[in-house]
């Protein structure tokens, strides 16, 4: 297993300002919906990660929506030419212990990303 650096963990904590989503429908409120804005600088990406207890939806500024189901490896990224703000909506348990990560600063990141993303298909 690869370790996440202290600096990367601190950046993740500063970036994460999870806010509950209140819905008028009781059934939806039981789903534990949370949202946060992610800001990625041009050419940057989050660590390769997956979760077992939640799904995530990333709403991109161009209208694209990425859905990440439990157990699926993903690494949101910004295009090389400009920063991007992404609205992330989480459904399910949102606990740091549920995140399995591989740091992009790890020398094996590119190899592991290719292997793990292929496992999704």
Protein model, in words:
- The chain is an alpha+beta fold and 121 residues long.
- The protein has a single domain (6-119), classed as Jelly Rolls (Sandwich).
- The chain has 3 helices and 7 strands; from the N terminus they run αβαββββββα.
- It has helices at 6-15, 26-29, 109-119, and strands at residues 19-20, 33-40, 48-51, 54-59, 65-68, 84-92, 99-102.
- The strands form 2 sheets. It has a 5-stranded antiparallel beta sheet, with no helix packed on it.
- A hairpin with a 5-residue loop joins strand 4 (54-59) and strand 5 (65-68).
- The chain is globular, with a radius of gyration of 15 Å.
- Residues 1-5 have low confidence and may be disordered.
Key descriptive features of the protein:
121 residues, alpha+beta, Jelly Rolls, 5-stranded antiparallel β-sheet, two-stranded antiparallel sheet, 3 helices, 7 strands, 21% helix, globular, disordered N terminus
What is the CATH fold-level name? Jelly Rolls
Order of helices and strands: HEHEEEEEEH
Number of domains: 1
Average of the residue pLDDT scores? 75
SS-derived structural category: alpha+beta
Give the oligomeric state of the chains in this entry, treating copies of one chain as homo and distinct chains as hetero.
single chain
